[in-house]
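Re: the 706-residue chain
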Amino acid sequence: MQATVMRLPLIAAIAALALSALPVIAETPPVTDDPYLWLEDIHGARAMDWVAKENARSLAVLKGDPRYETFHQDALKIVNAADRIPAPDQIGSHIYNFWQDPTNVRGLWRRTTPASYATVAPTWETVLDLDKLSADEKANWVWKGANCPPPTYKRCLVVLSDGGEDADTVREFDLSTRSFVDGGFSLPRSKQAADWLDDNTLILSRDWGPGTMTASSYPFVVKTLKRGQSLDQATEVFRGKPEDVSVDPFVLHDGDGHELVMITRGVDFFHSETYRVTSGGVQRLYLPAKINLVGLLHGQLVFTTLEDWRGYKAGDLVAFAPDELTDANAPAGGADRLIFSPGPRQSVEQAAVTKHKLVAEILDNVRGSLVAFEPRPGADWTRWPLPVAPNSSVNLVSTSYDNDQIYYSVENFLAPTHLWQADAATFTGSPTDIKDLPARFDASGDTVEQYEATSTDGTKVPYFVVHPKTMKLDGANPTVLYAYGGFQVSMLPSYSASIGKLWLEHGGVYVLANIRGGGEFGPAWHEAGLKTKRQHIYDDFAAVAKDLIARGVTSPRRLGIQGGSNGGLLMGVEFNQHPELWHAVDIEVPLLDMLRFEQIGAGASWVGEYGSVSVPEEKAFLETISPYQNLKAGVTYPEPFFVTATSDDRVTPVHARKMAAKMEAMGLPFLFFENTNGGQAASANQQERAERVALEFTYLTRKLMD
């Protein structure tokens, strides 16, 4: 099984971690003054008729534009290209990969040997064909991954969702026969987490029936399930509380044969209590309340503490034996416990364990580096840097606790992705550049610069500008400004073929803003925008826009903004607070009704980020920024484009629907597209992704280049 590769959680993740209690959300009485509550009936006939009407109207505009089909064909070539880099996943003695193309729309799970993978044209063996499975079972299966335990790696838990929703089904799969196991473990649809205790026992949390799911719609009861047992015969191991976000079990392994069975009780999105399961029962581990778990190495639990803890500062990467964590009052460890302590403009973005080493991506002023660490008893950890191109981002693609082979990718805005392979055991010789993504657009006329804007409170906010070398500072450059601004998610330089082909090649400028709320500079950068401090995030974004205008890069007539999910909320707020700054607002899978978000989808799980209407101070702030409630008559707004998906059971399409309907009633212009598949990405397969991308860039081109 691939070793744990932990990035800081996206809005998509419920990796919640630690000790401050989530406010109890009282049952909210029906809202009688909201005329669009009927659009919260996601699959209701009236709501779907409205969606069909708005889709037809907007698609006629966008697909009727003569540029749409060119964009669509370019996007299809990108997503269907046969020379894409197949992402490796080390499982036992094979490299596995999930692949989609025009023939395999839903995808193939396939495998090859490491030697074959390193060649230009690997020989792949199909393990599971999702198109055939979907046809046989009359479903729209979307791949969510597989959990294949050591030491044999013979059987896996394959995770699939119908249409891309967060709820999934889990089935036992035999890698030797490449088939589902007759009479094997089969967990019906639920939001759930499952792992192997042994060949015949699972530990899992899921919907066990009434009263076992949190207000955030995730499970809080953990049980063990023996082979042959029905779900109602499972044995309870641990029970959280209904007001928790989620309770999730998992099992960590290392190359020395150590195993650690763990349960995290997420009391909000960022805080949790951590437990281990032993033969004597469940035992509390006194880890930081805010934590990013990495994995096991030589029996030690490696993690990043996201708050000050035992003398270590927020952001430090440390390692402790589990037995050292059973005492709440234990002192700090010695020098061999601290692996790395970031500086003020640094952060640990990602880390993973191999059989003998720890490998971490370290950000320095939003530029990536890769460092390997090795423990030395009683002394500082030894470190080795790995080669990374300057001004790039790094991604640990695959590691394994069976060996020391690591695969990592390096990319930046203008340089296509390179996949490297290295032996972390000895670092003899140089890492091998084994696969390179061909250039998807002509970047020869472009360059990248990094600037800083000054926010309203004096904070310096960095941002990247990708632009033509010949750009004139006359305010006439069509510019798209993108940001996320939440959940400690870092926005890094990356190679986007679609942005390059559909925007940069046409003379557009692309800007990526590293506003507060993200993780670019560690936990403090994120916490500066939490809850009632969230206006800092929105001020940062506006400051970047104003700085671009002041520099002559663009002007309000040529400036558009784009963001999705939490970034969709950012778009909605900026749409309201600064309508004079933008001519295009691309609002993807957004949150917009911030006075009801806790009652919609998984919204209750995000109280740790946004606050709660049950807390008067937090409600008062949410009332000032909620895009849905703050639409005002008599204001000249730009025409936005809402993009969402019916099967998104996380944010749901409700927010986009209601705000669009309210704008319709106010006589305000907007465009709207709801994919009836797709989950939180608003697309369930490559073909749908190509359509969505083409629609969005058609909209941006119409608004900013015409």
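The first strand starts at residue 5 and ends at 7.
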